[in-house]
Amino acid sequence: QVQLVESGGGLVQAGGSLRLSCAASGRTFSTYVMGWFRQAPGKEREFIAAISRSGGSTSYADSVKGRFTISRDNALNTVYLQMNSLKPEDTAVYYCAAASSVYLSSSYRPNEFAYWGQGTQVTVSS
Question: Which pLDDT value is given to residue 103?
């Protein structure tokens, strides 16, 4: 089992940047595929990005490709989401999640991830 705690959210102007972090407990962090999702008010939780267990492969939703970068540091049990060129439509609660998967997929549904953080709010003003 793994516990996840996100940080780094906040208020930023359109065109700005934020870096989210997600710290994981336990000694098995490197055995999980890690992902980031977001949920805006009145909308379903959507996949943003995922990274393989080693960090060597990544996948992104089309809506963030080229603007967001997911990375991980297995020595620090932490996954990151660097968000650049932010837009007002990026406003949402952002969640990190862990999945006991062997391979990385190009997209995920939320129910494919077993463990979730509490979320961090990102607000982008126009």
Answer: 87
